[in-house]
């Protein structure tokens, strides 16, 4: 299982993140910007995207407009995988992704082509960033992850 590698029993040493050490901050940001664009394209096509620590999806919601008008809409959500939630004892709002939503993994080839990086670099960058994220969860550090 892919998500198992993000369940860390001990703190993460820098030797576990060799790619992040080699890349500049701006290169890491470019990889994640391209990853965000890929996720956004999938969400616009009503597909969910599984990234190893959880799933991005669009779920139906309602907005109340005026006094009694209810507007159906959709909102993007991130649902952490259940192993991760249990392992790190995370408190998350319950999110139900509709069963009919098709789910796709990250397409590293497509993401790499978008930023003109080697596919292997993109894959390692994403993997090590998620490891770093898991390490921060493990050490109860505050983490801010922003997606455009």
Features:
globular; 148 residues; alpha+beta; HU Protein, Chain A; single chain; 4 strands
Model description:
The structure is a single chain. The protein has a domain of 99 residues: HU Protein, Chain A. Helix content is 40%, strand content 20%. It contains five helices and four strands; from the N terminus they run ααβββαβαα. A hairpin with a 3-residue loop joins β1 and β2. It has a four-stranded mixed beta sheet with strand order 3-2-1-4. The relative contact order is 0.23.
Fold topology:
Blueprint lengths: L17 H5 L2 H20 L3 E3 L3 E12 L3 E12 L1 H6 L15 E3 L2 H8 L3 H20 L10
Helix pairs in contact: 2-4, 4-5
Indicate the CATH architecture of the domain at 23-121.
Irregular
Average pLDDT taken over every residue: 90
Instruction: Give the quaternary arrangement of the chains.
Output: single chain
CATH topology of the domain at 23-121: HU Protein, Chain A
User: What is the N-to-C succession of helices and strands?
Assistant: HHEEEHEHH
Structural class: alpha+beta
How would you sum up the major sheet?
4 strands, mixed
Strand content: 15-25%
Query: What is Rg?
Result: 17 Å
Overall morphology = globular
Low-confidence stretches: none
How many β-strands, per DSSP? 4
Widest sheet: strand order?
3-2-1-4
End-to-end span in angstroms? 28 Å
